[in-house]
Specification:
The complex is a heterotrimer of chains A (263), B (270) and C (284). Chain A is an alpha/beta fold. Helices cover 36% and strands 27% of the residues of chain A. In chain A, the strands form 2 sheets. In chain A, strands 6-7-8-3-9-10 form a 6-stranded mixed β-sheet, sandwiched between helices. Chain A has a 4-stranded antiparallel β-sheet with strand order 2-1-4-5, with helices on one face. The chains are: A alpha/beta (263), B mainly alpha (270), C mainly alpha (284).
Chain lengths: 263, 270, 284
């Protein structure tokens, strides 16, 4: 893929001295983080440490927030995210995002799946149907919904809605999947389903997941980045392979956080 | 209790008024009344040309006001979002417009459409005048409907790489349909009730209009004329008022249905 | 590429539409002024108030009786409707059971949707003859005041009700904890706390009353005079325009536009006052 583009290194995403402001208020300060291709990276930290804001920079959803301003640089697959010629629509196809609360659109399951495909140029109905079935199988939803694709997506359970949203993002064949606390609004059984889904996607996609749940971060991620709130501004404290970050963190703050919560 | 007494008193008064219109109006309602031309200055005959003129005026009104109103609402809700100077100025101008008395619209319509544009006393002049009048309420209702689409929907649509046109066309416009219908009906009701702005824009000729450039008498003007200028016109004035009230109540009922539907779709939490 | 073009076209179209909608109000001011200008340049504007009579075809432009008529009708309608409106709101908010209160509000909003020409018809055919029994001619200042009061009552009652609904429940609870009776809670706490909203509603009602045409045209008798009693007929600025506009020419027509301009200024004044009250409340 991407012939003629700069040579791909092992990092899917790389931020250098990333700062984010809402108006004059700084939200993120000097974040330097490298996210490895094909792995699951979790971002942990207390509320207000800028985890979600960090995520929204990575697919430029910050563009929709009028007062948001970014400086520093972000490279996605070696390309500068904020270069003037970046097509945000194509960018967001390649960098999918899942939100805290599932957001199915107010129409049928079928149309939820097909609308983004059609928008990105896949007009052929057979192709569409194939792709929809594949990704719905990937998220384990196919058997549950195959007979009622024409039903309203709003009638699905919370867990099913979230898996539908993941399928909808996967249908566009993204390279990177950003997940903002995808399980926080779900019950334990749905959470387990999503977690095993994330495990099964590992290797095919680069996944960045924000989570409050340290146990979840340990269970599912290969790498973990720990953000902290310093006088209201989010900063990256430490990032490391998950095992190391939890067992032998370099920073005392990390140690206090991961142990403190564990009790 | 003072409060209860007053409430009952006002309530009774209200039923007196409505009952008066319904009881005195109902006997005059026959097929002939709806189908025939007025005779003897409206004392005899029916209101067919009046109904036709009314419908024509309303068509002109909505035909003009809906595209402009919809465009303005989309601009205010989706493009400007209350942050551009133009958006703020337009909203302010519309607030002022909403409080302009109808007789002023009549003067304006007479000066601009009848004289300056040379349309004379015509259905077109009257319809355009009413279009100016109903714009604020139309825009306000549609805008509220557009804004009711939650931010989370917009964000997740953007995150799927949907273009703005696609977001508007596939997500926001469909969600705003009930409010568009409600705005349309509210505007229709407002236009149907209006008299003062029409007397000297669309005029009061009670013949069957042959084109939009003919003068046409609206239902409300007909009631006014029969009550004020035609001795012995009361019976038919009441019958016409009955028709007007029934039309308005039906429109209100439909509006309530639309808004109800709108509330329900919103509540489904999508 | 074509997608971006569609978006640009959509944007341009919507922008154009909003410019049109925004310009209407300016056009209204402009055309009213333009049509008035010939006469404003020709005679001293004070003459609109000082001229002894209204004979526009003979060069007398005294609008004072109409001005007085409009003012008296509005003030009268407010005196009748404001207390009633507040009492109705109190009834709905504090005394009526939930279901009755909701039904009553529905009734009020139906009442507010009845066209003014129907109120006028009722006033002319039912109310005026009753007043005639007391004191001829029946069509009079009093008839106008009463019908207009009914017309603006829903506006005042509904906005007063909305204002009282937004009074924080804690205030009322606190007052109850201090041993206030229900009556004291309503008059001592709820109404003062809701005052800005109530006043705004009253100003809106007054704006509607002074701008109303059909009712006053139909039930006030339309005699150009400053009335001696409430039983005398009067003519308002709005009725004057409606009566004469269809045949007025040159200076006469311009004089009617001048009266329209005056009316517009008065109504804008009302809007400005209610806006400043709202702005103050938001500031707090």
């Amino acid at each position: 893929m991407n012939k003629g583009k700069p040579k791909l290194n092992q990092y899917s995403i790389e931020t250098q001295k990333l700062n984010l402001f809402y108006g004059k208020t700084p939200v993120l300060k000097e974040v330097n983080l490298q996210i490895k291709r094909g792995l699951v990276t979790s971002i942990i930290g207390p509320s207000g440490s800028g985890k979600t804001s960090f995520l929204t920079v990575l697919n430029r959803l910050t563009d929709l927030i009028p007062a948001a301003r970014v400086d520093g640089s972000v490279f996605v697959n070696g390309e500068n995210l904020f270069a003037p010629d970046v097509d945000t629509i194509q960018l967001r196809r390649r960098v999918g995002m899942i939100f805290q609360k599932p957001v199915p659109f107010p129409f049928s399951i079928q149309k939820n799946m097909v609308l983004p495909l059609r928008e990105h140029g896949m007009k052929d109905r057979r192709q569409q149907a194939e792709r929809v079935e594949t990704v719905l199988r990937d998220v384990g939803l196919w058997e549950e919904v195959k007979d009622r694709l024409s039903h309203s997506a709003g009638l699905l359970s919370g867990g099913q809605q979230q898996r539908l949203c993941i399928a909808r993002a996967l249908a566009l064949k993204p390279e990177i999947l950003l997940m903002d606390e995808p399980c926080s609004a779900l019950d334990p059984i749905s959470t387990a389903a999503i977690e095993s889904l994330i495990q099964s996607l590992k290797g095919r996609y680069t996944i960045v997941i924000v989570t409050h749940n340290l146990a979840q971060a340990r269970r599912i991620s290969d790498e973990t980045a720990f953000f902290w709130n310093v006088e209201g501004i989010g900063q990256l404290v430490e990032s490391a392979p998950t095992e190391i970050l939890f067992e032998a963190p370099a920073d005392p703050l990390t140690k206090a956080y991961v142990h403190g919560i564990r009790g | 209790m003072l409060c209860t007494g007053v409430a009952v008193g006002v309530g009774l008064f209200f039923f007196w008024l409505i009952g008066d219109i319904f009881l005195k109006g109902a006997p005059g309602i026959t097929w002939e009344f709806l189908w025939d031309e007025p005779e003897n200055a409206g004392r005899k005959g029916g209101i067919a040309p009046v109904l036709v003129s009314t419908a024509a005026i309303l068509l002109v009104t909505l035909g003009t006001a809906v595209p402009i109103g919809f465009g303005t609402a989309v601009f205010l809700a989706e493009f400007s979002q209350g942050k551009t100077t133009l958006g703020r100025m337009v909203r302010r101008a519309l607030d002022v417009l909403a409080s302009v008395p109808s007789i002023i619209f009549g003067l304006f319509g007479n000066a601009v459409f009848s004289h300056w544009m040379g349309l004379g006393f015509s259905i077109l002049s009257g319809g355009l005048t009413l279009a100016c009048m109903v714009l604020p309420i139309l825009i306000r209702t549609i805008e509220a409907g557009l804004r009711a689409v939650p931010l989370s929907t917009r964000l997740s649509a953007a995150a799927l790489g949907l273009s703005r046109v696609a977001v508007l066309r596939d997500l926001i416009f469909p969600a705003a349909v009930p409010s568009l219908a409600a705005g349309l009906l509210l505007g229709l009701g407002r236009a149907l009730s209006e008299t003062a702005a029409l007397i000297f824009t669309s005029g009061y000729v009670s013949r069957m209009p042959e084109s939009l450039l003919d003068s046409g008498r609206s239902l409300s003007v007909h009631i006014y004329d029969l009550a004020m200028n035609v001795p012995g016109g009361d019976t038919h004035a009441y019958a016409s008022a009955w028709v007007l009230i029934v039309l308005l109540f039906s429109i209100n009922g439909l509006t309530a249905l639309c808004l109800d539907h709108w509330g329900k779709t919103r509540m489904r939490g999508l | 590429m074509s997608l971006a073009r569609t978006e640009r076209m959509l944007y341009a179209g919507c922008r154009l539409a909003s410019i049109c909608s925004g310009l209407i109000v300016l056009f209204i001011g402009f055309f009213l002024f333009k049509e008035s200008l010939p006469l404003l340049l020709k005679i001293n504007p004070m003459r609109f108030l000082n001229d002894p009579g209204w004979h526009p075809t003979e060069g007398q432009f005294g609008l004072f009786p109409m001005f007085a008529g409009s003012l008296l009708i509005t003030v009268g309608a407010m005196i009748v409707a404001a207390p009633l409106g507040i009492i109705l709101a109190v009834f709905c908010r504090f005394f009526a059971p939930r279901k009755i209160a909701n039904a009553y509000q529905a009734l009020l909003s139906v009442l507010s949707g009845i066209p003014s020409v129907v109120f006028g018809l009722w006033g002319l055919v039912v109310l005026a003859p009753i007043i005639r029994h007391v004191q001829p001619p029946g069509v009079s200042l009093l008839a106008g005041v009463l019908v207009l009061a009914v017309m603006i009552l829903p506006t005042i009652a509904l906005s007063a009700n909305a204002a009282m609904t937004s009074v924080p429940f804690e205030y009322l609870q606190g007052a109850a904890a201090l041993g206030f009776s229900k009556w004291q809670r309503v008059w001592g706490v709820a109404i003062p706390a809701a005052r800005p909203g109530i006043v705004t509603g009253m100003i809106l009602g007054a704006g509607r009353a002074i701008g109303e045409t059909m009712v006053v045209l139909m039930v006030c008798g339309n005699v150009v005079q400053v009335p001696d009693s409430v039983f005398d007929p009067v003519r308002t600025l709005t009725a004057n325009i409606a009566l004469e506009m269809s045949y007025a020419l040159s200076d006469h027509r311009a004089a009617l536009f001048v009266s329209g301009l005056m009316l517009l200024f008065v109504v804008m004044g009302f809007v400005a006052i209610s806006e400043s009250i709202r702005a103050k409340v938001i500031e707090k």
